[in-house]
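fwd from M.: "can u put these together and see what the complex looks like"

so here's what she sent:
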Amino acid sequence: EVQLVESGGGLVQPGGSLRLACAASGFTFSNYAMSWVRQAPGKGLEWVSGISSSGDTTYYADAVKGRFVISRDNSENTFTLYLQMNSLRAEDTAVYYCAKLRGSDRGAFDIWGQGTMVTVSS
Amino acid sequence: DIQMTQSPSSLSASVGDRVTITCRASQGISNYLAWYQQKPGKAPKLLIYGAYTLQSGVPPRFSGSGSGTDFTLTISSLQPEDLATYYCQNYRSAPWTFGQGTKVESK
């Protein structure tokens, strides 16, 4: 079964850090680009970051550039996408979804995880 | 950056109605346009990619059209399970922006 499972969310103070992980299974992880998308409570979808299949190319929304770092581990038996979030702000509070793209560098998001909640509050 | 604008923001329709949602890109994106459906508390689901190609398993009552800057999602005969929020997305170039969403409610 094709599956993405996020973990690492939680409550963090403003200025703090958090690392999200997304474990992939059921498909050849190293063949596809991946992305993170977030959704603040009651709001729409906001694209956050993306990474090519090889990990050589990364993309960021302006709102997180310089604070978030996307990475991936394509090692066999360790197919995982990461999002290192630093200098967190209240406006980063959201459900964070990881998603698989249909292509190696871009494409529609055809598989989504269930999401992990990140709350930034003192 | 490419901005995506959906209209309307919400609509009310009855079962069996034909529903149309539009999405406009601030610059041409060819056919690099996807549509997603999201139900409360659930992850989004891909409906259409390439502006008009139906994702596997999606009912044929859903269809997409358009190219360049103007796109449309049509539900030919609304079903109760179609009550949800719909988003368009540009994936021609990063940032891969989403529209603000269209909530389809029951009349």
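replying to her w this: Chain A has a mean pLDDT of 97.
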